[in-house]
């Protein structure tokens, strides 16, 4: 099986970052994108050209936007553990998984998701601070 056949089902194949940003903005708008991803390029004087410029320079942000595109806009099922470790453009999407309708998003849902992430980060940091000699993590 060739690489073309393997990646032909990935919605990111042949799609540039500018098109990804444009589709996301048309579907959700700048404010909602900022609420979910918390990228300043979506908040401070949002513009497709400046957002694309930032995303091309910042690999982690580009991957975050591409993940959002795949799993919120294209509504694909979450990847398995092996594919999750790969960048979004390199993921193999099974042939039986086709893009669906865009997810319905809200500001309250974005807030809930970020509160949940913050709680997990605090718990993770607390766990890392504790040790055998200092079990309370002080």
Describe the model.
With 138 residues, this protein is mainly α. The chain is built from 7 helices and no strands. It has helices at 3-7, 17-28, 30-37, 48-57, 59-73, 81-84, 107-129. Helix 2 packs across helix 4 (48-57), helix 2 packs across helix 5 (59-73) and helix 4 (48-57) packs across helix 5. It is globular and about 55 Å long. The model has no long low-confidence stretch (mean pLDDT 85).
In short:
56% of the residues lie in helices and 0% in strands. It has 138 residues and is mainly alpha-helical.
Strand residue content: under 5%
Unreliable sequence segments: none
Helix proportion range: 55-70%
H/E element sequence: HHHHHHH
Inertia-based shape: globular
Mean pLDDT: 85
Number of strand segments: 0
Oligomer: single chain
Secondary-structure map with pairings?
Blueprint: H1 3-7, H2 17-28, H3 30-37, H4 48-57, H5 59-73, H6 81-84, H7 107-129
Helix pairs in contact: 2-4, 2-5, 4-5
Kindly list the characteristics that best describe this protein.
138 residues, mainly alpha, 7 helices
